[in-house]
Write a structure and sequence with these properties.
The chain is of the alpha+beta class. It is built from 6 helices and 23 strands. It folds into 4 domains: about 90 residues, conserved putative lor/sdh protein from methanococcus maripaludis s2 fold (Beta Barrel); about 110 residues, Beta Barrel (Elongation Factor Tu (Ef-tu), domain 3); about 60 residues, RNA polymerase II/Efflux pump adaptor protein, barrel-sandwich hybrid domain (OB fold (Dihydrolipoamide Acetyltransferase, E2P), Beta Barrel); about 80 residues. Helices cover about 30% and strands about 30% of the residues.
Length: about 400
């Protein structure tokens, strides 16, 4: 009886859990069917990707020659320190030295006391005159004694003595001529003449000063001939027409003064036949042309109270040399040249990758050569993460203009 009761309890317990399990299975199946019948169907739709915004600038053909830029300092063609080969007291100084004004070639700038040299010259000339008179008399005596010897009225010894005396006087004459030349040189050394047309930069001598041999008297320079040595890269030098053939390429020279910039025209005169060992550049010399600034105006048109300044020596100058003329050349920002040989053009809402050759780099700008570019093309200057040829892009400038038009219409 007990055994039957235990079996009955076990059957009842198992039946209960089977019922619970069946209920869970049925509930899950029913819920799945319910959710399946009442689900919301989402239809697939294409994802609209945003169009990249780009900044552009106009791509205009180069108007004129390539600019070869450089910089340097203004210096005179010739600048030297006047000095004397002899010492002495200063007796004359040219007014240009005191006034720092101009002088002409050949003018006496400084003269030293030359009385001793003049006296030596007079002594030499007197000795020459006396010796020449004795030589003339000796020649007469030789002719007379020679006739007496032929008649037997004189001895040959006397004739030989006269001829020997004549040779000695000729030797003395050569010595006196040399003394006269030395006196002339000594006198000339006491006069310092202008070696060229120019002006005085500074002076260090006054009348009455006693100067030593080689002492500096004044520093002079060629005021009308000013030059600038400009270091030029070899790649840029190759773009200057006729540089190594003596052609004088034109140039413009801008010299800052105070807060203004004054401009002169110049031309290339020469190029040094060596490469700088440190910078690997060539030194091109540009000479300033017309130094007269009649209007006295700066590059931007201002007139200053001091008047137009001259091209001051040692002034810093910015030089632009006229380079070669090129066809199909354009100036673009250097950052717009991609990979050194490609530019991105904005072409009716899409990106167009176009090959280009860089022909000259000018600081933040690069000059490129590209053929068959559409008229009025715009070049993309901004960066893109994953650029593809033909990808859609939108010009920021067009969008800004559209926004301005819409805002104006709303008002």
């Amino acid at each position: 009886m007990r055994k039957l009761l235990a079996i009955t309890q076990w059957v009842v317990k198992e039946a209960f859990w089977l019922a619970v399990a069946g209920g869970l299975i049925f509930g899950g199946w029913y819920g799945f069917q319910y959710l399946g019948e009442n689900r919301v169907v989402t239809e697939a739709a294409p994802v609209e990707r945003p169009v990249a915004l780009v900044e552009t600038v106009s791509l205009d053909p180069l108007d004129g020659a390539l600019p070869i830029r450089g910089e340097g300092f203004v210096r005179p063609l010739r600048q030297l320190s006047l000095s004397s080969q002899v010492g002495g007291r200063v007796t004359y100084v040219h007014p240009a030295i005191h006034d720092r004004t101009r002088f002409e070639q050949g003018e006496v700038l400084v003269r030293l006391d030359d009385r001793a040299a003049a006296a030596a010259l007079e002594q030499a000339e007197a000795n020459i005159a006396a010796t020449m008179a004795r030589i003339a008399q000796n020649e007469k005596d030789v002719r007379r004694v020679s006739q007496l010897v032929d008649r037997g009225a004189s001895t040959r010894t006397q004739l030989d003595e006269l001829r020997s005396a004549g040779d000695e006087m000729s030797a003395n004459l050569s010595g006196f001529n040399a003394a006269r030349l030395a006196a002339e040189i000594a006198q000339a050394d006491r006069t310092i003449v202008a070696p060229f047309d120019g002006a005085v930069l500074n002076e260090s001598v006054e009348v009455g000063d006693v100067v030593a041999v080689g002492q500096a008297l004044a520093e002079v320079y060629t005021e009308g001939d000013l030059e600038i040595d400009v270091p030029v890269r070899q790649a840029d030098a190759a773009l200057i027409p006729g540089l190594f053939e003596g052609a004088q390429a034109n140039a413009t020279v801008d010299v800052p003064f105070a807060d203004y910039v004054f401009r002169w025209q110049g031309y290339v005169t020469r190029v040094q036949p060596e490469v700088n060992a440190l910078t690997r550049t060539l030194t091109v010399t540009v000479r300033l042309g017309d130094l007269e600034n009649v209007e006295g105006r700066s590059v931007t048109g201002q007139t200053i109270a001091s008047g137009a300044p001259p091209a001051l020596i040692n002034a810093y100058a910015q030089v632009v040399i006229r380079g070669a003329d090129t066809n199909n050349a354009y100036r673009i920002p250097s950052t717009a040249l991609r990979g050194g040989d490609t530019v991105w053009l904005y072409n009716s809402g899409s990106l167009q990758m176009t090959p280009a050759d860089a022909i000259h780099v000018d600081g933040e700008n690069t000059y490129i050569s590209a053929a068959d570019l559409p008229v009025g093309s715009r070049i993309i200057t901004s960066q893109l993460l994953a650029p593809l040829d033909g990808m859609p892009v939108r010009n920021v400038t067009d969008r800004r203009q559209a926004d301005l038009k819409s805002s104006d219409a709303a008002e």
